[in-house]
Specification:
Helices cover about 40% and strands about 15% of the residues. It is of the alpha+beta class. Among the domains are: about 35-125, Sufe protein. Chain: A (Alpha-Beta Complex); about 145-185 and about 270-375 and about 525-585, FAD/NAD(P)-binding domain, CATH 3.50.50; about 380-520, Succinate dehydrogenase/fumarate reductase flavoprotein, catalytic domain (Flavocytochrome C3, Chain A, domain 1); about 630-645 and about 775-840 and about 855-974, Up-down Bundle (Butyryl-CoA Dehydrogenase, subunit A, domain 3), CATH 1.20.140.10. It has a six-stranded mixed beta sheet with strand order 10-6-5-14-24-23, with helices on one face. Strands 16, 17, 18, 19, 20 and 21 form a six-stranded antiparallel beta sheet that branches. It has a four-stranded mixed beta sheet with strand order 4-13-12-11. A hairpin with a 6-residue loop joins strand 26 (about 765) and strand 27 (about 770-775). The longest helix has about 40 residues, at about 875-910. The protein is globular and about 85 Å long.
C-alpha cells in the first residue's frame, strides 16, 4: 500500500490532569528590573504597552489601545492588563469578541517581557491564575429588587433608569464586556418629530414613522408596539441628550420616507458611541456590571410570579432573590443551531452578530410558558464584508454610495428595504456586489475609517483603476458612475427609481470599493410583549414580574426591520421596561430620589488547575518520537500514471509520502515542486501562522524566499493551542482562514478534529490575494460534490493541463472532510485523538494524551479500545487491511483509466475533429473525473476513515471517465 496503514499525522493536543500537584518554586531572578515598551498591530491601530517588572514580578502593565474600538478593543485591553498581572504571564485567554486586540496586547507584552530577560515558558509554568474548572462552584445568594439580564443597549438603558430611580438592582452580563449586539449597530436611531429634525427643517411625523415601519415589515408588525415606539422616539432622543449621548446628524436610511435616522455628530457608528456613553453614565452613577455571569434560569413563586434568577459566574453559582426581572439578552443571530431550527436555509450564512447573541433569554422565558412571535423572521443585511463579517453601515449608501455587480453595473435601488436589496444581490453572478464610494463620502462619514484601517477596502485614483482592482470592465464601471452622477445632478434615477441618498455625486478621487454580500443581521422574532414591556405567555396573560426589551422580543419589526429601528427599539423599550418594573414592583409610583445601594463586594478568586510539569515533560518526549516517522515512498515511482495525469503541475515532478510534523520545513525546502509564494509554507510551521496573525493575509502572497528564512520552528504546540502553548490544556485554531471560512459554523466540529483539520483539509489559494482558504462555510458543505460546485461557481482551477486544455483541480488532503462524514465521528463522536493519540500515564499517575501520532493498528492501547466494538485485535486489523487493499486496487484501476482518458483527449484536441463546444463537454467530465479520483487518492487513510466515501468517489470518477471516452468515441465516429 502506498501509505502506512491507517496513518493520520494529525495535529491534535489533548492534555488532561487527574490530580492536583505542587506549584514549582519561582526562579531566583525572572526579570531585569525596569519598564519596557513594545507594540503590535491591533484591529484598527498599533497597540502599545509599557510593562514594569522587578526581579520576580510583573508590577504593572500599561496598555494604550485608544484607537481600537472603545467598547470591545479598549475594554479588552483593560481586562487583559489585570489578567496578565494576576497570572504573571502574558499567555492569558483572549477576550471573546475582541480577539485581534487581545492577541496584539499579548504579543506586545510578550516582547516587552522577553526584552526584560524573561523566559516565557518559565512564566507559564509558574503562572498564578487557574485555567480550568476544579468542580462545582460555591453557591452565593444575593437579595435585590430587580435583576436586569444583559448589558447591551436595552439593558444598559434600563439600568440607568432604575439607578436614577434609586432602586437596588444587579446588572448581569455573560460576556466579559458590555454592549452586546448594540456594538454592531453602525447606522443610527430612527425617531420622528425630534428637535433635531425641526432645527434642520425636516418634516416628519409619528404617523409616517409608523407607516414606514409597518410597510417595511410587510404588515407583520404588532401595530400597537410600532405606535408606541414612534410616539416615544422623540422623548427617547431627549433622554439621550440628557445623559450626554446626543445624536444630531440626520440622514436617510432604507425604507424611510424622509431623513429620520439620527447618528453621532462625527458620523461614527451609533452602537459603539451609545455603549461608550451608557458605560460612562453607569460609571458616573456607581453601577457595577457583573461580567462573565450568565443567567441560566428564571425562578417563580407558587403564584407564578417572578421571584429570582439563577446564574453562573466565574467564581460562584448565584441565586438572586428579586421582585422583578428585565430580560435584555438580545437575539439569537450568533446561534446557528437555534436559528436553523426556524430557518434551515440560512445554515452556514455569515453573521454580523456579537458572539453573545445566542437566544438565552428566549429559552429561559419559554421555560415559564412565554409566547413567541415572528420567531422565523430573520433579517439579512445586504452589505456585509464576508471574510470579516463586518457590517458596512447603511449610512454609506444613505450618503450616496452605489452597488454594482461583477459586470460593473447597478442592479437595484440601493436604498430599498434590506430584504429587497439582499434578494437583489443574491440574484447577481456570484451572489455578491461591490459598494462604490468616493473620497468626499469618506471625509464626511467617520465609520468609513474603520473599513479602511481593517483592510477591507480597495482604492484607486481613477474609476478605471478601481475597476481593474475588482476585475470589472473599466469602461462599464466608468459609464455606470457617469450615469449615476447624472442621476444625482438631475435628482432622478429613471432606471431604478432611487429618490434618496442623492445629495452628493461620486466624482472626488480616490475611489473606493468593498466587496459585500448578505449576512444574518437581526432576529426579528422573540418573546411576546405588550406595550408596557410585560412578557406574555401562551395563554395571552402577563407573566407577573417579567419584562423584556430589545432584540429578545418580537412583534416590533415584523418581517423586516428598517435600518435605525433596532436602536430605537432598545432605547425606547428599555426605558419602558424599567418604568413598568419600577411602578409595579411594589405597587407604588416611581420615587423621585433614593439612597444608592451599597456595592456588592468583589468575589474572591478561586484557583483552578494548569497542566502539571510532569505532563508537559511527557508530551515533549512523545512529540520527539515523531522523528521516527522517517519513511518516504515516491508515489510517482509506485503509481506511474500519476506523472501523466498531473502533467503541467508540480506534483508531476515530486510527490511522496509525508514524513510527519518533525520534517515539514526540511521537506518543503527540498521539494522539486515550485514554491514561488509563501503560501506553500502555510501548514509547515507554527511561525507562519504567527506571522499571518500578526501582519495579515498579505503574507501569503510574499515571495517564498523572503519568508522562508524567518521560519524556525516546525509544527508544534502553537498550531493546536495558540498563545497558551498547551499550558492550560485548551485547544484552539491558530490558522485564521479556518475562522474566515467557517465562522460560527466551526462550533459544529469537535475541537479535537478541528485542531487537526486546520491543515488536514481540502484548501485552495485565493486568486485575488493568494490566501489559503477552505472551499466551504459549514460542515454540510464539506462533501466532494459541494466542494466541486464551490470551485465551479467561482471558476477556479489549479492548472490548465497541457495537451487536453482541461482546467484541473488538485485535491489536497481532505482528512477532516472524510472523517466527519464517516460513522466513527458522525455516530460515535470520535475524534482524531481517539484513534491516533493513545492515553498514557506519567510516573506520578497523571493521565495524558501521547503526542506520538500512531496508527491504531500498531498501538496496543488503541487496539484495546477498538475491540469493544470490533472484537479481537486480529479481526480489526484484518478488516482494515481488507478495506485498504480494496481501495488501493480500485485507485490503480481508475488512475490508469484516467491516464488513458488524458491521452485520448489530447489526441482529440490536436486532431481538430471535435468542435470547441464538444471539447468543452469532454473537458468538464475530465475535470470532474480527476477531482473525484484525487479526493480519494490524496486522503491519507486509504479508505479506513470512510470506506464508503472513498469507493463512491472512485466509482463516480470511473463513470465520468467512461462517459467522456464515449463522447470522444461518438464524436470521432469510433
Amino acid at each position: 500500500m502506498k501509505k502506512l496503514i491507517c496513518l493520520l499525522l494529525a495535529m491534535t493536543v489533548m492534555l488532561f490532569a487527574a490530580s492536583a500537584w505542587a506549584e514549582p518554586a519561582p526562579a531566583e531572578t525572572l526579570f531585569t528590573p525596569g519598564t519596557y515598551q513594545a507594540e503590535a498591530q491591533g484591529m484598527l491601530s498599533t497597540v502599545k504597552v509599557w510593562v514594569t517588572v522587578d526581579e520576580q514580578e510583573i508590577i504593572a502593565v500599561l496598555i494604550d489601545a485608544t484607537d481600537e474600538t472603545e467598547t470591545l478593543g479598549g475594554v479588552a485591553a483593560g481586562m487583559l492588563s489585570a489578567a496578565i498581572r494576576d497570572a504573571q504571564t502574558p499567555n492569558v485567554d483572549t477576550i471573546s469578541g475582541a480577539t485581534v486586540t487581545s492577541k496584539a496586547v499579548i504579543q506586545a507584552v510578550t516582547e516587552a517581557l522577553v526584552a526584560a530577560g524573561a523566559d516565557i515558558d518559565v512564566l507559564d509554568a509558574n503562572r498564578r491564575d487557574a485555567g480550568g474548572d476544579s468542580g462545582a462552584k460555591p453557591e452565593k445568594t444575593i437579595d435585590t429588587e430587580i435583576v436586569i439580564i444583559g448589558a447591551g443597549g436595552a439593558g444598559m438603558t434600563a439600568a440607568i433608569m432604575v439607578k436614577q430611580a434609586g432602586k437596588d438592582f444587579v446588572l448581569l452580563e455573560k460576556m466579559p464586556y458590555a454592549g452586546g449586539n448594540t456594538t454592531k449597530a453602525t447606522g443610527g436611531m430612527n425617531a420622528a418629530e425630534t428637535h433635531y429634525q425641526k432645527e434642520q427643517g425636516i418634516e416628519d411625523s409619528v404617523a409616517l414613522f409608523v407607516q414606514d415601519t409597518i410597510t417595511g415589515g410587510h404588515d407583520l408588525n404588532d401595530p400597537a408596539l410600532v405606535e408606541v415606539m414612534a410616539k416615544e422616539s422623540s422623548n427617547a432622543i431627549d433622554w439621550l441628550d440628557s445623559i450626554g449621548a446626543e445624536l444630531p446628524k440626520i440622514s436617510f436610511s432604507g425604507g424611510a420616507s424622509v431623513n429620520r435616522i439620527h447618528a453621532p455628530a462625527d458620523g461614527s457608528g451609533v452602537g459603539e458611541f451609545l455603549v461608550e456613553r451608557f458605560s460612562a453614565k453607569l460609571d458616573e452613577l456607581g453601577v457595577e456590571i457583573m461580567y462573565n455571569t450568565a443567567a441560566t434560569e428564571l425562578l417563580t413563586d407558587a403564584e407564578g410570579r417572578i421571584c429570582g434568577v439563577k446564574a453562573e459566574g466565574k467564581d460562584y453559582a448565584y441565586t438572586f432573590n428579586c421582585k422583578a426581572v428585565i430580560l435584555a439578552t438580545g437575539g439569537f443571530g450568533a446561534n446557528e443551531e437555534m436559528y436553523t431550527q426556524y430557518r434551515p436555509d440560512l445554515k452556514g450564512t455569515v453573521t454580523t452578530n456579537a458572539p453573545g447573541a445566542t437566544g438565552d433569554g428566549i429559552v429561559m422565558a419559554q421555560a415559564l410558558g412565554a409566547d413567541l412571535v415572528d420567531i422565523e423572521q430573520i433579517q439579512l443585511h445586504p452589505t456585509v464584508e464576508q471574510s470579516t463579517s463586518m457590517l458596512i453601515t447603511e449610512s454609506v449608501r444613505g450618503d450616496g454610495a452605489i452597488l454594482v455587480n461583477q459586470s460593473g453595473k447597478r442592479f437595484t435601488n440601493e436604498l430599498l428595504t434590506r430584504d429587497a436589496v439582499s434578494a437583489a444581490e443574491l440574484e447577481q453572478e456570484g451572489h455578491y456586489a461591490y459598494i462604490i464610494f468616493d473620497q468626499n463620502l469618506r471625509d464626511h462619514l467617520k465609520a468609513v475609517e474603520k473599513y479602511v484601517k481593517t483592510g477591507i477596502t480597495v482604492q484607486a485614483d481613477t474609476i478605471e483603476g478601481l475597476a481593474e482592482l475588482i476585475s470589472v470592465d473599466p469602461a462599464v464601471l466608468a459609464k455606470t458612475l457617469a450615469d449615476w452622477n447624472e442621476c444625482v445632478k438631475n435628482q432622478e434615477d429613471p432606471e431604478f427609481g432611487r429618490t434618496t441618498g442623492m445629495n452628493a455625486d461620486l466624482t472626488t478621487a480616490p475611489y473606493y470599493a468593498i466587496k459585500i454580500a448578505p449576512g444574518i443581521h437581526h432576529t426579528m422574532g422573540g418573546v411576546k410583549i405588550d406595550t408596557s414591556a410585560h412578557v406574555i405567555n401562551t395563554e395571552g396573560n402577563v407573566i407577573p414580574g417579567l419584562y423584556a426589551a430589545g432584540e429578545v422580543t418580537g412583534g416590533v419589526h415584523g418581517g423586516n426591520r428598517l435600518g435605525g429601528n433596532a436602536v430605537a427599539d432598545i432605547v425606547i423599550f428599555g426605558r419602558i421596561a424599567a418604568e413598568t418594573a419600577l411602578s409595579e414592583m411594589d405597587g407604588t409610583a416611581v420615587p423621585e430620589t433614593a439612597e444608592e445601594p451599597a456595592a456588592e463586594p468583589e468575589p474572591a478568586k478561586e484557583e483552578t488547575a494548569q497542566v502539571p510539569p510532569s505532563v508537559i515533560s511527557r508530551v515533549a518526549v512523545t512529540m520527539g518520537q515523531n522523528s521516527e516517522n522517517n519513511i518516504v515512498t515516491s508515489y510517482l515511482e509506485q503509481d506511474p500514471y500519476l506523472t501523466n495525469i498531473y502533467e503541467g503541475y508540480g506534483f508531476a515532478k515530486d510527490y511522496g509520502s509525508a514524513r510527519g510534523h518533525t520534517y515539514t520545513l526540511e521537506d518543503v525546502s527540498k521539494t522539486l515542486r515550485p514554491h514561488a509564494k509563501a503560501n506553500c509554507i502555510t501548514c509547515k510551521t507554527d511561525d507562519f501562522a504567527r506571522l499571518v496573525n500578526t501582519e495579515g493575509i498579505e503574507v501569503y502572497s510574499r515571495a517564498f524566499d523572503d519568508v522562508f528564512p524567518q521560519m524556525k520552528n516546525t509544527i508544534s504546540c502553537y498550531t493546536c493551542h495558540g498563545d497558551g502553548m498547551g499550558m492550560d490544556g485548551q485547544l484552539t485554531v491558530s490558522h485564521s482562514y479556518v475562522n474566515t471560512a467557517l465562522g460560527n459554523a466551526a462550533a459544529e466540529i469537535a475541537p479535537a478534529i478541528l485542531a487537526c483539520g486546520q491543515c488536514h483539509i481540502e484548501y485552495y489559494f485565493t486568486p485575488s490575494d493568494s490566501e489559503t482558504m477552505m472551499p466551504y462555510h459549514s460542515k454540510a458543505e464539506m462533501t466532494p460534490e459541494a466542494i466541486l460546485a464551490y470551485y465551479d461557481a467561482m471558476g477556479f482551477y489549479d492548472w490548465e493541463q497541457p495537451g487536453t486544455g482541461t482546467k484541473m483541480l488538485k485535491a489536497q488532503h481532505p482528512e477532516m472532510e472524510t472523517v466527519l462524514a464517516g460513522k466513527h465521528a458522525a455516530n460515535f463522536s470520535m475524534t482524531c485523538a481517539d484513534c491516533h493519540m493513545p492515553r498514557e500515564t506519567t510516573d506520578d499517575g497523571i493521565e495524558y494524551s501521547s503526542h506520538y501520532f500512531v496508527s491504531p493498528l500498531t498501538n496496543e492501547t488503541l487496539l484495546n479500545s477498538c475491540t469493544k466494538c470490533h472484537g479481537t485485535a486480529e479481526n480489526l486489523i484484518s478488516l482494515v487491511q481488507n478495506v485498504q487493499v480494496k481501495v488501493t486496487a480500485r485507485e490503480t484501476e481508475v488512475g490508469n483509466k484516467l491516464s488513458a482518458l488524458k491521452d485520448k483527449l489530447t489526441e482529440a484536441a490536436a486532431g481538430g475533429k471535435l468542435s470547441e463546444e464538444q471539447l468543452e463537454a469532454v473537458r468538464k467530465l475530465h475535470r470532474e473525473a480527476q477531482w473525484y479520483f484525487d479526493f480519494c487518492y490524496v486522503e491519507n487513510s486509504e479508505g479506513a476513515h470512510n470506506s464508503s466515501l472513498s469507493l463512491t468517489c472512485l466509482e463516480t470518477s470511473e463513470a465520468k471517465i467512461d462517459e467522456a471516452m464515449a463522447l470522444i468515441g461518438e464524436e470521432q465516429g469510433v
